[in-house]
């Protein structure tokens, strides 16, 4: 935990698919093969979705993927060069240049709204924070660079994922990359 740092400088080297798998698992995975996940969720309703924009991942073609936590699988959504779109959307575009992947969290607000009404939005934001911390800690343990990104043009990322920005909307993103050199 004390080693966790946000880093925006990546080597541009590929990262292993196993790293993407572990990061996705610790973000939204179901450790007991049931409904419970690695993060707390108001009412156990789990409104968050995880999308992965892969650019430099061994054994994974570049493209956009959706993470299915129940089967612990990535489902391909498209093979376009999404990093260019991410770079246009974020407020720190240079950090995207050598990233290996971008994790994008969205919320499907209706899942929580059924029980919590207007508080669903707040609970989704809190849960996104829990998930992002898990991603950051797991990336640090895997000796990867990670930079959480909350500054972006919402409509650009929503359009990239083909979500409407109302019923499902982007909340948070993380740039993931291989570090130039790890000390120690």
Q: Quick one: how many beta strands? A: 6
Strand content: 15-25%
Cα gyration radius (Å)? 15 Å
Spatial strand arrangement across the major sheet: 3-2-1-4-6-5
Find the structural class using helix and strand composition.
Answer: alpha+beta
Largest sheet: 6 strands, antiparallel
Given as residue ranges, the uncertain stretches (5+ residues, pLDDT < 50) are none
Helix-strand pattern: HEEEHEHHEHE
Task: Using the alpha-carbon principal axes, give the shape.
Answer: globular
Structure annotation, total helices = 5
Mean pLDDT: 90
Distance between the termini: 16 Å
User: In percent, how helical is the residue content?
Assistant: 25-40%
Summarize the structure.
The protein has helices spanning 17-28, 82-89, 110-116, 119-141, 154-161, and strands spanning 48-54, 63-68, 73-78, 101-108, 144-149, 168-178. It is of the alpha+beta class and 184 residues long.
